[in-house]
């Protein structure tokens, strides 16, 4: 049963409220009644109740002040105020304080019963929601840190401070760092062990990380896709020792898991002085882990060590990038095949490891992307193929396999280029047709005037249009003019000479000759036949 407490300085009002409502029927009981607000405050220090019904006008402390004090400590307490004052300001103030309802005297007990029932139902719903919220606290914590690593410092501090306080996140650390553990063989592990076993292995690894850093004042780890994000905080301001400890622990972890079903690469970001700046450390951790494409998987990369290392010079073969772009521009698949086969032999003799070859392929594909960008061609599918290649580098065991994949991407680029060219040609041809339809009455309409409009040379435009539309431009002009002439012959009584001028012919006889050549009839005969059919109709 729900506990209800009633407070009113009028004993008769108290008795009326107790006796004229069937409390049991609405699942409640009157736990206690009071005539002074102070007594209620003392009682609430010891007892949890579900609903308080209070008069507003009471000596020493009125119902509004009592509600204010209670709701400061118990924001979910349900309160109904009763007053003899028919004053909207009282009701407005009660609502502002968070009171559930406001009932005027004299009390309609049937109405009050319904109000109490609704308030208790609302209280029960809120309790269920609170319980769900408490049960979802781990999910809220993960959401907080997930939002944190993706937000700028100013945005994070402004929008996530309240969330941090609610979740009791300790913000008193002097230094923070983020690391990322990228599972390199997630697909193979899932295929071999099943999805459930894979997640058990991932969770076991996460718990191992938490255990290794358990002496730190802040440790939080969570999974994100096939990665484990590690956020660490340290109270002692000593960047060198803190970062060394993190690196040593993660290196030991990496060595321990060498024989594990999971293979992973670890990136460690920069030390940052505030948790609101952890996104910068996270991005650096991702950048550090990304060096596995150059140095191989299964290592621990510290962003600070990477910055201090001189870049290894990679000697690219002169002219190869331009040659590949030329072959793709020409859509020469045979030439591209020969090009990639030559690369196989050249790279095999030039490099002694996979990393130099990967760097060369990256350079070639970057040049390809730049070519498409410069020409305004959509690179979406090409970028997906390139991304797919680099995400599956561990699957290529020979130079020949890698070069075969490079050929496939180049062939895809040729197809994309051909589609783009065809689209461009179709657009130009449609512009030409629109221009003809709008200017067919112009006597000077010809290939040269149209080519000036679409900004394409006459010879190129003529070939492009015929290949796209199946007829040359002059024939298209004539077709449009004859079609318009037919409309005028059918629907007007204009003279033949006027019609010829209207559709762009300076000479009536030349118009008649062209009309007969196209239709097999002179304009006059066509009009007579058409008008005869219409007359018969």
Q: Can you list the strand order of the major beta sheet? A: 2-1-3-4-5
Number of DSSP E strands: 10
Q: CA-to-CA gap between the ends? A: 91 Å
Continuous helix count: 24
Question: What number is the mean pLDDT?
Answer: 85
Strand content: 5-15%
Runs in which pLDDT lies below 50 for 5 or more consecutive residues are 310-314
Q: Which radius of gyration do the C-alpha atoms yield?
A: 41 Å
The chain-level structural class is: alpha/beta
What percentage of residues falls in helices of 4 or more residues?
55-70%
- Under the CATH scheme, the architecture of the largest domain is 2-Layer Sandwich
Largest sheet: 5 strands, parallel
Here the CATH topology of the largest domain equals: Alpha-Beta Plaits
Number of domains: 4
CATH fourth-tier homologous superfamily of the largest domain: Reverse transcriptase/Diguanylate cyclase domain
- CATH class of the largest domain, named Alpha Beta
Q: What spatial form do the alpha-carbon principal axes imply?
A: flat
**Oligomerization:** single chain
